[in-house]
Specification:
The protein has one domain: Sandwich (Jelly Rolls), CATH 2.60.120. Strand 4 and strand 5 form a beta hairpin. With 218 residues, it is α+β, with helices and mostly antiparallel strands. A seven-stranded antiparallel β-sheet has the order 1-2-13-10-15-8-3, covered by helices on one side. The protein has three helices and 15 strands. 36% of the residues are buried. The chain is 16% helix and 32% strand. It binds N-[(3-hydroxypyridin-2-yl)carbonyl]glycine and fe (iii) ion. The site of N-[(3-hydroxypyridin-2-yl)carbonyl]glycine (MD6) has 12 residues, from strand 10, strand 13, strand 14 and strand 15.
């Protein structure tokens, strides 16, 4: 590193960090828009409230969820699926705010996935102890499109393994403003998040973490 590199380092966005084949960690990618994103989440949640859904196996999920866009991700005793209406209100999901769509497209492009057109944005809200077990995102029709995942608020440990549930999972700390872009060879890798820590806290969100995952389903 030359002295000039050092001088500019602070103002440059962090270089995309490869975390698996086709998967990138974009540290701080949405830091300057974070407050606006949290406002947009609250706007969506005022129309499609956060709720704890039930898995087909009968477990109540510890993360509370909402969605926006043409499709939302739902689960109940009948199974996992995408739905154009919110089962809580029987109304269409709130439209995807333009800022969210824009950020998803820019993040996808930064990971090498041009022309990403998300039609669904799943919003997860974690409080102390909430977690997401290892799973694959495989309810989407379009496996060529990546997934863009935005982390806001308290930090959490993101886990990802490989194509088999038993593959050893690596851990990455995801902080406020970080984005993960996920596609290609790792599109179907198992992943999840460790329980949100007891002392997890962020100045803006308090003891909560939000995660937005943008998908192209159809
Ligand atoms: C979460 N994320 O970070 C859960 N899925 O709260 C996911 O399940 C996820 O971060 C696909 C791609 C990226 C992700
Ligand atoms: Fe996932």
């Amino acid at each position: 590193m030359s002295p000039t590199d050092d001088l500019f380092a602070e103002s440059l966005p962090a270089a995309p960090k490869p975390i698996a084949d086709g998967a990138w960690l974009l540290r701080g990618f949405v830091l300057s828009e974070a407050e606006q994103l949290i406002n947009a989440i609250q706007q969506v949640a005022s129309q499609a409230p956060f709720r704890h859904q039930t898995t087909p196996g009968g477990h109540v999920m510890s993360a509370a969820m909402s969605s926006c866009g043409d499709l939302g991700w739902v689960t109940d005793r009948q199974g996992y699926r995408y739905s154009s209406t919110d089962p809580l209100t029987d109304r269409p999901w709130p439209a995807m705010p333009a800022l969210l769509r824009q950020i998803a497209m820019e993040a996808a492009a930064a990971g090498g996935y041009e022309h990403f057109e998300p039609d669904a944005c799943l919003i997860n809200r974690y409080t102390t102890g909430a977690r997401m077990g290892l799973h694959q995102d495989k309810d989407e029709d379009d496996m060529a499109a990546p997934i863009v995942s935005v982390s806001l608020g308290a930090s959490i440990r993101f886990l990802f393994g490989g194509t088999a549930r038993t593959d050893k999972a690596a851990g990455w700390k995801l902080e406020h403003g970080d984005v993960v872009v996920w596609g290609g060879a790792s599109r179907l890798f198992f992943h999840g998040v460790a329980p949100l820590g007891k002392r997890a806290e962020h100045p803006t969100t308090g003891p909560m973490r939000y995660n937005l995952t943008f998908r192209k389903v159809r």
